[in-house]
Design a protein that fits this description.
alpha/beta, 15 strands
């Protein structure tokens, strides 16, 4: 209990949140509640924090608990060595980070065989202690060292004894937590990361994407995350040599000031050892530590940015009630076509060859026109991979033909990242066992336009293509973060339990792959669910799992309209009480008398109802919102997806042109915007708005529809520079 109170106090100070809210969240997490459930159905207990705040709290709680666990391990280890003092125990208790904790523990760790351990084996530790104490006022060091000469132990001369003692002292200095802390402050505040082209003298510097870093230096404290990751990759690919450039003179002076005592015959000896300890032991260790720390910080930033991009990508508004054609472009093997109905059910597939080397545009137009008219297609989703530009031009021209121009068909270029991964997966094979892998991609592309969330959850989030250096990230940490984002998105929208795939259901709060598969199997065996309570009959869905998942599952056209809302079954009686106060019934909601209900609800006192029903105001407010919009999809409130009917080319762009585009990716130094020319343009962070911007995510997010001005176009390098600044 004492430890919990310490955690609560620390989290309260760090996160600037009320202590009782933090205590409640910790209790809820420890009781097995999921973040989406806590965020949606336990608002009174945490002051209506959103899922992002709750995940941040959960992550920090995990870190602090791991820190406490490591703290105990270190105390036990040092105690078992008989070296634990009250002063040391207090220092361990005050350590605020794992790095500081490990610095304290460093002298007590079991080491691999070093020069110092060899010297200790030769019995030279007493000599080292004597000289390091720097209390001898007279005498000659070699004379003192001669007492430790022992041929049997391998010490032949006084000089060898002094060297062994120096090795022990050097290691003692390098293990000193205070010294390391001082040097970390010095290096972190004043030193630089330097990268150079990895070429031998006389060799020509190669062209590469890392040219910016062929002669680069920047203070460690100013380094931006994307630069750290780029430099790391350049080093890994052997284009760059990277190091930390430190002021060695100042660092050694700092060590000497801390270690060296004066007026002793061993002071000069120890002073020289300080330099050896720094150059041979301390700096190489700190350089590795700083590089690791920079990478970890940059990775966390990149992971956070990936999550920020992933959420709006998944939450893009669906293009509802539109039979859609998926168009997977290619050259030699032909463009794969898949037609799905408004619910994503596959109707027809085919292959056409409108691109090089075949260029069978007439034949392709005839085939596609028949498909479009037969299935009353209203939208075409074109993948943005190989041959996408040529395919887009073909589609735009085809839609202008007399046969199709009046049918109101539009198209959109869809990010197909990960479609091939899905197509070759077991999931796709189970869904479309009769289809060729490439045709499965076309189905996925069509469905991505219809319902991005339902389709993209089938793909590893790392493959969705809205990150930066995602393949360089710590895999477990990235997977954990992205899975959390997907989980939050799926649960915020809700899932139709009678149509959802196991992949989609597995992200629902309280469910997993097994229970999601069981829910679908139960549906297939017993027919469509007509009430939420039937989920309790599904194997392995126990009371806790039902509590966590029920509010996020939707049953359209079931026995109770509340089953098609975000109202949790635990609150059905409260919902009925609200309706009763409005002289309304469940049947009235079904019949669509919502305007009348809205007028009646506006006259109610939410606080009075909350007190009467013994629930919180946030819960009452949420229930009312759901009653007024049963079956609502929060994505419907977002700006609609931009569909196109015509195409532009880079050569059509001129400086000063104003265009409308869609934000496709947000990175540390700007945002990439699709302006309909197949090549996304970059809005640099300095061009996002007229004021200073610390990070692009403050201004834009993936999926935003923005107005941009063309600054410059480089067709050879395929670079488009854009601005969002107002004139």
């Amino acid at each position: 209990m004492k430890n919990i109170q310490k955690l609560i106090t620390q989290l309260t100070l760090e996160l600037k949140l009320r202590a009782d809210y933090i205590e409640n969240v910790i209790t809820l997490i420890d009781d097995g509640n999921t973040i989406p459930f806590i965020a949606r159905y336990r608002k009174e207990l945490h002051g209506s924090m959103d899922d992002t705040q709750l995940r941040d709290l959960s992550d920090r709680l995990t870190y602090l608990r791991n820190l406490d666990k490591r703290r105990e391990e270190i105390i036990n280890s040092i105690d078992s060595q008989g070296k634990l003092t009250d002063e040391l125990k207090e220092a361990i208790a005050k350590a605020e980070t794992l790095a500081k904790l490990e610095d304290i523990y460093r002298p007590y760790k079991q080491k691999r065989r070093t020069r110092a351990t060899i010297a200790r084996e030769k019995g030279l530790e007493p000599l080292a202690e004597l000289l390091f104490a720097q209390e001898l006022k007279e005498g000659v060091l070699t004379d003192i060292a001669s007492e430790y000469v022992d041929s049997d132990k391998g010490v032949e001369t006084p000089e060898e004894a002094l060297q062994g003692a120096a090795d022990i002292i050097a290691e003692e200095i390098s293990d000193d937590a205070k010294i390391r802390e001082l040097l970390k402050t010095q290096i972190g505040e004043y030193e630089q990361l330097v990268s150079k082209a990895n070429v031998k003298s006389g060799e020509e510097v190669p062209d590469s994407v890392y040219e910016l870093y062929y002669d680069f230096s920047e203070p460690l404290k100013n380094l931006q995350s994307h630069r750290v990751l780029a430099i790391n990759r350049g080093e890994k690919e052997k284009f760059l040599n990277v190091s930390i450039q430190a002021n060695d003179v100042e660092c050694i002076k700092l060590i000497r000031k801390t270690i060296v005592k004066h007026n002793s015959i061993s002071s000069e000896f120890v002073s020289e050892i300080c330099e050896d300890s720094y150059e041979r032991l301390i700096f190489p260790s700190l350089e590795r530590e700083f590089r690791s720390m920079l990478t970890e910080t940059a990775s966390e930033q990149a992971i956070k940015m990936f999550g920020l991009n992933l959420k709006p990508t998944l939450m893009q508004p669906p293009v509802k009630n539109m039979p859609t054609m998926g168009f997977d472009p290619a050259y030699r093997t032909g463009c794969k076509i898949a037609v799905v109905d408004e619910n994503g059910k596959l109707l027809e597939t085919g292959v056409v060859y409108p691109t090089a080397p075949h260029n069978k545009t007439g034949e392709a137009t005839k085939t596609l026109a028949r498909m479009l008219k037969t299935h009353k297609i209203k939208a075409i989703a074109i993948g943005n991979g190989t041959a996408s530009k040529e395919s887009e031009i073909f589609v735009a021209e085809m839609l202008k033909s007399p046969e199709l121009s009046g049918l109101g068909i539009s198209y959109m270029v869809v990010n197909e990242a990960g479609a091939s991964v899905y197509s070759a997966s077991k999931l796709a094979a189970a869904e479309f066992p009769e289809l060729d892998v490439s045709l499965r991609s076309a189905v996925s592309i069509a469905r991505r336009l219809q319902d991005p969330l339902a389709e993209l959850v089938k793909i590893d989030p790392k493959s969705i293509g809205v990150g930066q250096y995602q393949h360089d990230m710590p895999s477990a940490r990235l997977d954990e973060t992205l899975a959390g984002v997907v989980e939050d998105c799926v649960n915020s929208v809700g899932v139709d339990v009678n149509s959802a795939s196991p992949a989609l259901l597995s992200y629902i709060s309280g469910l997993n792959t097994t229970t999601a598969t069981n829910i679908v199997a139960f549906r297939e065996e017993n027919g469509a669910y007509t009430a939420r309570n039937q989920i309790k009959k599904v194997p392995k869905v126990g009371p806790k799992a039902f509590e966590q998942c029920a509010g996020f599952l939707r049953i359209s056209g079931g026995k109770n309209v509340l089953d098609n809302t975000g109202v949790h079954p635990e609150s059905y009686k409260v919902a009925e009480k609200i309706l009763e106060k409005c002289d309304f019934s469940i049947k009235d909601i079904v019949s669509g008398e919502l305007e009348k209900l809205r007028a009646m609800v506006s006259k109610l006192s939410v606080t009075e109802i909350a007190n009467e029903c013994n629930v919180g105001v946030p819960t009452i407010s949420d229930i009312i919102k759901e009653l007024l919009k049963p079956g609502r999809d929060p994505r419907d409130e977002l700006p609609p997806t931009m569909l196109r009917t015509d195409v532009m080319d880079m050569k059509d762009l001129k400086s000063g042109m104003t265009l409308t585009g869609t934000v496709r990716n947000v990175i540390d130094f700007g945002a990439f915007v699709d302006i309909g020319v197949h090549q996304d343009g970059l809005v640099h962070i300095s061009e996002l708005c007229n004021k200073f911007v610390k990070h692009p995510s403050e201004i834009v997010k993936v999926g935003d529809i923005v107005n941009v001005t063309v600054l410059s176009v480089d067709a050879n390098k395929k670079r488009i520079s854009l601005s969002m600044k107002s004139k």
